Amino acid sequence: MTKISRRNVLKGGAAFAAGSTLGAPMIWAQNIKDVTLRQFGTGVSNLNEVAQKVKEDLGFTLEMTALDSDSVTQRAATQPNSFDIADIEYWICKKVWPTGNLQAMDTSKIKNYDKIVGIFRNGKLTPESTIAQGTAPHTVGFTSGPDGKDFVDNESGWMTLIPTIYNADTLGIRPDLIGRPINNWSELLNPEFKGKASILDISSIGIMDMAMVVESMGEYKYPDKGNMTREEIDLTMAIFTEAKKNGQFRAFWKSFDESVNLMASGEVVIQSMWSPAITAVKSKGVPCVYQPLEEGYRSWGGGIGLSAALTGLERDAAYEYINWYLDGWVGGFLMRQGYYSAVPETSKNFMSENEWGYWFEGKEATDTITSPFGDPLAQAGETRDGGSFQDRMGAVACWNAVMDENQYMVRKWNEFIAA
Amino acid sequence: MCPSHPAPESPNVLKNNTFVGWLMALPIMAVLMFFLVLPIIMIVIVSFWQATEFSIVPAFVWENYEFLFGSNVTYRVFLNTFKYAAITWAFTLGIGFTVAYFLAFHVRSLTWQIVLFLLCTIPFWTSNIIRMISWIPFLGRNGIANSTLISWGVIDAPLEWLLFSDFAVILAFVHLYTLFMVVPIFNTMMRIDKSLIEAARDAGASGAQILWNVIIPLTKPGIMIGTIFVVTLVMGDFITVRFMSGSQSANVGRLISNDIALLAYPSASATAVVLLLTVLIVIGILLRFVDIRKEL
């Protein structure tokens, strides 16, 4: 468990200062400065820069703790008094919400609620969209009332999590070592890449990538990839165990750095990967593409939930924090790393036209694109892999999920690793 | 003899050797009780508990052991663990014995013996994780080993089995643990009375006969101590197997670490208890061959 300490000096902080014209809301009494909110969550959005900006804009202190997703789940479920704000993924919410450790949030207090993208409200990016399989955020996003322990399928006015960050994941490839177009998930098990493929050794996400591959191979069509039966789990594992025994995989990876090293060194030419890992490989000067595939993306989303124990001034501060979160600065900060904000239009104010065009609209960069930390990510003339927001989030095939047969799946996963 | 006058009310207590012996052993016993025995008892207790997805529940159930012994993965993984231990043992013994023999009997001056012995320990100045990971770029597809072999014309295509294979795992184990064999063997060899070897030679024994009939029997305690080190280290390892096999092989340590990552502490404890018993049995068998206490 690591406690992130706020960095005193923020590299390139001047670049962000331009956007901080909002100022602290006037309604705040002086004692808001004494409020400390304890937030915990996975590393993705638990960023020091956010805590620092909160102090600047809102005046109160945000303490952040980053944990891995298993620990986050356990803590949210068992220690409701150890946190004020939980920054968790939607599939974790599905597990944690029924315990009653989080409180429903009144959407009428959320200023930008109407601007939140459809994915998190009715599940549809556009009115014509079909809803993807797995734990789609809107299915666990609403509850029946202030004390609800259930999930409802309409916009009830009471949200379980306020969406903050999400993205669409796919396979990463080395175009220079493959030398031909890759268009399907099934290529992961193509014997052409024998000994040069990899998959991540995190069961809950790995099983979804496997399901995408199995469907793409035409072996089986899952009624719901996000909630497999025991037979479906067995079938999926059997296909991958056979591939493993035939030497298809070079290695499995568990940490972000391992995936970067496997790809950058050329040990692996095709593998499951996360968006910032692609960026890390590219920044070593090695070509790497986050390949859009015909079957679509495996997507994930996270949001902020409030502890059931939060009341009074602290709860007011938490609402103010949520409103600030959706107001654009954080969104811009996240979008310039390749993630998406729940209210993209407010983030636009905190991005240059070039950045907005590259990251959101899928346009050619007109100038060098740099990350918020100052690393160059793309040169003028390049476009984002997968294109625009609509193209990428419109092609989501499934969401990260938690299955009813989760424990069975984990055991089978261990067998696969030991096979 | 106790130099100070014993307290009048207990005149014989401090003269009692058994009592003094126990008193002197008390600090180390307290430390071992607290940091070794208690945690192990705790692990044994937890291994009978139940786990849900969020929490562990005190109970007394056998389900963790039932699952462990009911799954053929367990047997395969234990077999794999023994395989790693046996092969690593054979190599570290061969290399360790040779190095120790050279240091003890071929290097004549004590100064050079010490210098060369310290030379053996230099790699141990860095962490063993670093020593292990440094093999990865060396053995990789485009690594130094493959590119050298290709440039020499020995091979045409990179050897895939160099990295992320059982070969890589055992290579790393041998590299990491050979010194644990060298040190105790060298230590016992240094204490062999040289006149025994002279006597054997005077009696007409050949070099091989001296090695087999004099040196090896007298070095057995050192070999046994080295063996215990290597076998316990290899059987308890998980990180070397994970990195060098690219997560593709499993040993018991990895089963335990996977369980811990999934918060299944009772199941991890049950596996740990079985592993502990297995290792104790192995050591018990080894100690049947050599009475270390007598030989020390």
Keywords summarizing the entry:
heterodimer, A: 419 residues, alpha/beta, D-Maltodextrin-Binding Protein, domain 2, 2 domains, 10-stranded mixed β-sheet, 5-stranded mixed β-sheet, B: 296 residues, mainly alpha, MetI-like fold, 14 helices, 2 strands, 72% helix, flat
Task: Explain what you see.
- The complex is a heterodimer of chains A (419) and B (296).
- With 419 residues, chain A is of the alpha/beta class.
- Chain A has 2 domains: 33-168 and 299-351, D-Maltodextrin-Binding Protein, domain 2; 171-295 and 388-418, Periplasmic binding protein-like II (D-Maltodextrin-Binding Protein, domain 2).
- Chain A has 15 helices and 19 strands.
- Residues 1-27 of chain A have low confidence and may be disordered.
- Chain B is mostly helical and 296 residues long.
- Chain B has one domain (73-295): MetI-like (MetI-like fold).
- Chain B has helices spanning 17-46, 63-70, 72-106, 110-121, 128-133, 135-139, 144-152, 166-190, 194-202, 207-236, 239-244, 252-261, 265-289, 292-295, and strands spanning 50-51, 56-57.
- Chain B has a two-stranded antiparallel ribbon with strand order 1-2.
- In chain B, β1 (50-51) and β2 (56-57) form a beta hairpin.
- The interface between A and B is medium-sized, with 32 and 29 residues.
Structural topology:
The complex is a heterodimer of chains A (419) and B (296).
Chain A: E1 2-3, H1 13-17, E2 36-41, H2 48-57, E3 61-66, H3 69-78, E4 85-89, H4 90-96, E5 102-103, E6 105-106, E7 133-134, E8 158-159, E9 162-169, E10 171-173, H5 175-178, E11 197-200, H6 203-217, H7 230-245, E12 249-253, H8 256-264, E13 270-272, H9 275-282, E14 289-291, E15 297-307, H10 312-325, H11 329-335, E16 340-341, H12 344-347, H13 353-359, E17 369-370, E18 376-378, H14 389-393, E19 396-399, H15 406-418
Parallel strand pairs in A: 2-3, 2-4, 7-19, 11-12, 11-13, 15-19
Antiparallel strand pairs in A: 1-3, 4-15, 5-15, 6-8, 9-15, 9-16, 10-13, 10-14, 17-18
Helix pairs in contact in A: 3-4, 6-7, 7-15, 8-9
Chain B: H1 17-46, E1 50-51, E2 56-57, H2 63-70, H3 72-106, H4 110-121, H5 128-133, H6 135-139, H7 144-152, H8 166-190, H9 194-202, H10 207-236, H11 239-244, H12 252-261, H13 265-289, H14 292-295
Antiparallel strand pairs in B: 1-2
